[in-house]
Amino acid sequence: AQSVSQHNHHVILSEAASLELGCNYSYGGTVNLFWYVQYPGQHLQLLLKYFSGDPLVKGIKGFEAEFIKSKFSFNLRKPSVQWSDTAEYFCAVQAPYGGATNKLIFGTGTLLAVQP
Amino acid sequence: EAQVTQNPRYLITVTGKKLTVTCSQNMNHEYMSWYRQDPGLGLRQIYYSMNVEVTDKGDVPEGYKVSRKEKRNFPLILESPSPNQTSLYFCASSLRDSFSYNEQFFGPGTRLTVL
């Protein structure tokens, strides 16, 4: 079965530190990839997405992610985190299979705490 | 404003008491979906709908029902809620069921507690 793995469940950083959150997926074919963020008490917001083209994608709030097809990875990065980046981050994969092509498979999430 | 709305946002109920969580979108989207979010499990799809009167099971459909009588609404029905359905529920919609550029928009979530 298709799956998405986020290896870091909890990450604690100080402000200005660099961030990299890992995401690996198991589907071997063409995929669309997403990172969502959920701030405390709020709903999911799209950070960035990859559909095709340049494997380095830039999103909102200074985040970027790199799609490495050979590694089945889509890691999220930010050079310098801020306290306001404290949130839970979800990687999601969309793969065309089964009855619907629009299904998102989510990772289990990474809780990021940024200390001022 | 384009949005997905859910009601109620918070609900505490007791085992066996039927409830409905409403979801509505104003973007004329064909595809709508329900997810539940549980700690350590991420979001898992409950049901989805590709258009009016077209619904299908997701990964965790047991104990839930849905209907899609109108394009804008996709209610989630718990006929006989149980404590293991205590969770955070999200409704999502997108233009259509398509693998091409097709962002899903999420509602604000409904936190359900079943005692």
Molecular structure report:
- The complex is a heterodimer of chains A (116) and B (115).
- Chain A is mostly beta strands and 116 residues long.
- Chain A contains no helices and twelve strands.
- Chain A has strands spanning 4-5, 10-14, 19-21, 24-25, 32-38, 45-50, 56-58, 64-68, 73-78, 87-94, 104-106, 110-115.
- In chain A, the strands form three sheets. In chain A, strands 2, 5, 6, 10, 11 and 12 form a six-stranded mixed sheet that branches.
- The mean pLDDT of chain A is 91.
- Chain B is mainly beta.
- Chain B has strands at 4-7, 10-13, 19-25, 31-38, 42-51, 54-57, 65-66, 76-78, 87-94, 105-106, 110-114.
- Chain B is globular and about 40 Å long.
- Classes of the chains: A mainly beta (116), B mainly beta (115).
Keywords:
heterodimer; A: 116 residues; mainly beta; six-stranded mixed beta sheet; four-stranded antiparallel beta sheet; B: 115 residues; seven-stranded mixed beta sheet; 11 strands; 0% helix; globular
- Listing every helix as H and every strand as E from the N terminus to the C terminus, the arrangement of chain A reads EEEEEEEEEEEE
Figure out the total of helices of chain B. Answer: 0
Total DSSP E strands of chain A: 12
- Order of secondary-structure elements of chain B: EEEEEEEEEEE
Task: State the oligomer.
Answer: heterodimer
Reported for the largest beta sheet of chain B, the result is: 7 strands, mixed
Report mean pLDDT of chain B, rounded to a whole number: 93
Helix content of chain B: under 10%
Overall pLDDT of chain A: 91
Distance between the termini of chain B: 36 Å
Helix count, DSSP H or I runs of 4 or more residues of chain A: 0
Shape of chain B: globular
Strand content of chain A: over 45%
Rg value of chain A:
14 Å
Low-confidence stretches of chain B: none
SS class of chain B: mainly beta
Care to count the β-strands of chain B? 11
Radius of gyration based on Cα positions of chain B: 13 Å
What portion of residues of chain B belong to β-strands?
over 45%
Helix proportion of chain A: under 10%
Sheet/helix structural class of chain A: mainly beta
